[in-house]
Design goal:
The complex is a heterodimer. Chain A is about 55% helix and about 10% strand. A three-stranded antiparallel β-sheet of chain A has the order 1-3-2. Chain A is mainly α. Chain A has four helices and three strands. Chain A has a single domain, classed as Winged helix-like DNA-binding domain superfamily/Winged helix DNA-binding domain (Arc Repressor Mutant, subunit A). Chain B is an alpha+beta fold. In chain B, α6 packs across α7. In chain B, the strands form two sheets. Chain B has a four-stranded antiparallel β-sheet with strand order 2-3-1-7. In chain B, strands 4-6-5 form a three-stranded antiparallel β-sheet, with helices on both faces. Classes of the chains: A mainly alpha, B alpha+beta. The interface between A and B is medium-sized, with 22 and 25 residues.
Chain lengths: ~110, ~260
């Protein structure tokens, strides 16, 4: 689900942006499901694999666990925020180009 | 539990064939035995039952999933908690293999792995783990059998084809497993362009036949390399088969054990 140099896949993009405020695993699944209107439903195996890899890449970090709590919370790091910024500007540019192309198509001369 | 009866049953399965194992667990659940743990073998008392622990419950239809993950204990606690939160109950963990089960149709629909990449990642973890432990084991054996004090001073280590035979067998087995994982991964990557059921798992006995044939074919080559003073003889195969039959009896005795226990 997470590759180093590729553009982020849609599920990992949503996982990353949902960690803008600290959340634990199940919270991430719920939030991603809410944000995407139930379109993206992460399985626990997939999510845990993605979290482990993102921690390894330094995009997110696990927060210290309080006593008696089994759920570990994760938060976005500066590197993760930078990556998210890069992705957002990439997508914004795509939207800009796409909209411009569509507008040109709408205003085409009738042939 | 209302009914505290439990039962221990072992099931030998090849790691890349999780469907066979999941089928076994489902059939046990249909008979009313629900997976609830794993009892480790006691290496000094192998005649005692060990294997998967089942508790008596209503006969029910359960869906099982397998994952492979070796991690620190505190991380695994977090992982199992996450699975439980999403409705996948923890069945058992043994040697990094985690079994989860669920009854809910909605949970099954969301699935344990929601994309193919994470399934591929699981097979890659298994493949890597198997090949690393396998090659370490083979290197240890190679040293022990051919370069250690034992091999110089104990006569059984010098004039016996069992040692190279065992090394060849293990090497063939681990490489074959690695190739089977590769087949699984290849199928997941290319199933969109291929027909739906182009990937058929081979039967257990077919796998066994291939591994044994390759082993027997490669023994002379490795035998010459490892023991140059040895002349190749046909009765190598008989010696090998003789020792291997002990090995098979040992495996059947330990892995084929079916035990019952009331607690």
């Amino acid at each position: 689900m997470v590759m180093k140099n590729d553009p982020l896949s849609e599920p990992s993009f949503y996982v990353l942006l949902s960690l803008a405020e600290p959340l634990h695993g199940y919270g991430i699944i719920k939030k991603v499901e809410d944000l995407s209107d139930g379109r993206i439903r992460l399985g626990p195996g997939t999510l845990y694999g993605a979290l482990t890899k993102m921690v390894k890449m330094g995009w997110i970090k696990p927060l210290p666990v309080e006593n008696g709590e089994r759920r570990k919370a994760y938060a976005l790091t500066i590197e993760g925020a930078a990556l998210l910024q890069k992705e957002v500007s990439r997508i914004t540019e795509q939207i800009k180009h796409g909209t411009a192309a569509l507008r040109a198509w709408e205003n085409r001369k009738p042939s | 539990m209302n009914n505290p009866e439990t039962r221990i049953q072992n099931f030998t399965w090849l790691l890349w064939k999780e469907d066979a194992f999941i089928g076994f667990l489902k059939s046990m659940a249909a008979k009313g035995w629900v997976l609830c743990g794993f009892k480790r073998p006691n290496l000094l008392m192998l005649w005692q039952p060990y294997g998967y622990i089942f508790r008596k419950d209503e006969p029910q239809e359960l869906e099982f999933r397998m994952d492979f993950r070796r991690d620190k204990k505190e991380n695994l606690g977090d992982y199992i908690q996450l699975c439980t939160d999403t409705g996948w109950h923890h069945g058992c963990t043994f040697k990094g293999i985690h079994i989860f089960y669920t009854q809910e149709k909605t949970t099954v629909k969301a699935d344990f792995f929601s994309d193919d990449e994470s399934k591929i990642a699981k097979y890659k973890r298994l493949q890597k783990h198997l090949l690393v432990t396998g090659s370490l084991g083979i290197l240890t054996m190679y040293y022990l059998f051919f370069h250690s004090w034992l091999s110089q001073h104990v006569s059984g280590f010098q004039d016996n084809v069992f040692m190279p035979g065992l090394i060849v067998f293990l090497a063939v087995f681990f490489l074959y497993s690695g190739w089977q994982f590769h087949r699984n991964i290849h199928h997941l990557r290319h199933k969109a362009v291929k027909k739906e059921n182009s990937h058929k798992q081979w039967s257990f006995w077919f796998d066994v036949a291939i591994v044994i044939t390759l082993t027997l074919a490669l023994i002379p080559a490795f035998g010459f390399y490892l023991m140059p003073e040895f002349k190749w003889r046909w009765d190598w195969y008989f010696t090998q088969a003789f020792f291997m039959s002990f090995w098979v009896v040992f495996m059947v005795l330990t892995f084929g054990w079916v035990g019952r226990r009331k607690s």
